[in-house]
Amino acid sequence: MNGPGRGVRGWEWLGALGGGLALGWSFVDYGAWWIPWVAVVPWIAIAETGPARRAFRLGWFGGAAGIACAFVWLIHAFQVFGGFALPTALALFVPPVAWMGLQVGVFMGLLSWLGPLPLGLAAPLTFSVVEFLFPTLFPWRIAHTQYRLVPLLQSGEVAGPYVLGFVIVWCNAGLVRFLRAREFAPLAAALGALVVLALAGGARVHHVEALREAAPAIRVGIVQGNIGVERKGDRAYFRRNLDEYRRLSWELADDAALLVWPETVAQRPLRVDERLPAPEDHPFVDTPRPLIFGGLAIAEGIGGRRLYNSAFLTEPGGPIIGRYDKRVLVPFGEYLPFASRFPWLRRMSPATGHFTSGDASTILTTGEVRVGPLICYEDVIPDPARQAVGRGANLLVNLTNDAWYGASAEPLQHQALALWRAVEVRRDFIRVTNTGLTAAIAATGAVVTELPTFVAEARSVEVRLLEQPTFYAARGDAFAWSLVACWLAVAWRRWLGA
């Protein structure tokens, strides 16, 4: 056990801080994929040698530092998306950082209390359980840092990101045991699991690519208009913004069977019961191909006016043949928490929207293409994609506007989280954004095509229409729940033996 000396405590604080900043940086620079394989070492070492309370405090400190590093763009988002002044935005930044940093504190405190397990399994088991159960604003997982290492992603079709995350932390735990006690078995077991994951993943990539080659193909035109936040929200530019999207769409009309525009390109609300809007309201009445576009839908009823963030499917000639209303709304952007109870909150955030959430998973169908639409945040959580595939989707399409976050790490973080949906349900995945990153992602998780940020560009990409089921699409987080059961069993034995 560590003594009470100040030197030891000082190194513990530095270790907790260093681990947090290193892991946080790996969510900013995805070329630093190797960092998570060692960044958790100081956290595990501290937890294994200190009282649970101290481990919890140090973990909270290190975790908050890492979260602040990774998600500093939230300050800008609160200003632009929510309309808050800088002092208010800074104040609003503190609670999510403190809350998400708490996840690491819980991990280290529980690991310290639980004690060791054979082969160093206590750390990966505890980390995975806390990562899965801890409620957080952004569902960031340590496995998301590896999104460019495609073979390592393939276990996602069975367990989401949790197998890879387990192995990453296991390697950290094995390294701790080797450095501290020259025990090689935990590190050898963890490295063996990594080798199996890489080899099996590589074989699975080849198999899925063969399935893709045999599947029907379609060319999709992805359009990124690069309309800035101020211009996008200025009514004087509404028609000119649409003119830019129409111009880009015509450029690739001959090489696409389906066109896709990003979130809320059409700023003039369309009535939910309107099949053929008037030409002055329709964003692209003479579209040369079926078009999916993001816009606003409005419903009038006994309960008053309801506004939706929607994805519309329109055919040449203008008829709207399908609509999906976003179901997972973003707080402080699309709605203001507690504003119905405390109306004065709206004076602090006049730019926050008043959207109503949709109530159904809807498939947009044109020809043989059955699109599972996802809007903005909905592609970073697994359930909307799983539900769309359950309803028959053979292609996933996400409409997003990440212009709110400026030239930050957020667009890359968004994509790193989102591409796991392609692997989990084995569907090709199109992400169309206003300012980037617009991309086509294969069912293997490989980024096939990517448009640069802050550039107006349109491109035709080939996607494949897959129908194969996956364990994850059918059973969701069964693997993660099995880890929870294992941890509870170990904790029960620890409790009885205390």
Structure commentary:
The chain is α/β, with parallel strands linked by helices. The chain has 18 helices and 13 strands. Strand 11 and strand 12 form a beta hairpin.
Percent of residues in beta strands?
15-25%
Question: What Rg do the Cα atoms give?
Answer: 24 Å
Distance between the terminal alpha carbons, to the nearest Å? 18 Å
Q: Could you give the count of β-strands?
A: 13
Number of continuous helical runs:
18
The coarse overall form would be globular
Q: How confident overall, as mean pLDDT?
A: 90
Query: Biggest β-sheet, characterized?
Result: 7 strands, mixed
- Helical content stands at 40-55%
| Structural class estimated from helices and strands | alpha/beta
What low-confidence regions span 5 or more consecutive residues with pLDDT below 50?
A: 1-8
Could you give the topology of this structure?
Layout lengths: L5 H21 L9 H4 L1 H9 L2 H19 L2 H8 L5 H29 L7 H12 L22 H4 L2 H20 L3 H30 L2 E8 L4 H5 L4 H14 L6 E3 L5 E6 L19 E11 L2 E11 L5 E6 L19 H4 L15 E3 L2 E7 L6 H9 L4 E6 L9 H9 L1 H6 L3 E5 L4 E4 L5 E5 L5 E8 L6 H5 L2 H20 L1
Parallel strand pairs: 1-2, 2-4, 3-4, 8-9, 9-10
Antiparallel strand pairs: 1-13, 4-5, 5-6, 7-8, 10-11, 11-12
Helix pairs in contact: 1-3, 1-4, 3-6, 3-9, 4-6, 5-6, 6-7, 7-9, 7-18, 9-10
Keywords:
498 residues, alpha/beta, 18 helices, 17% strand
Describe the structure concisely.
With 498 residues, this protein is of the alpha/beta class.
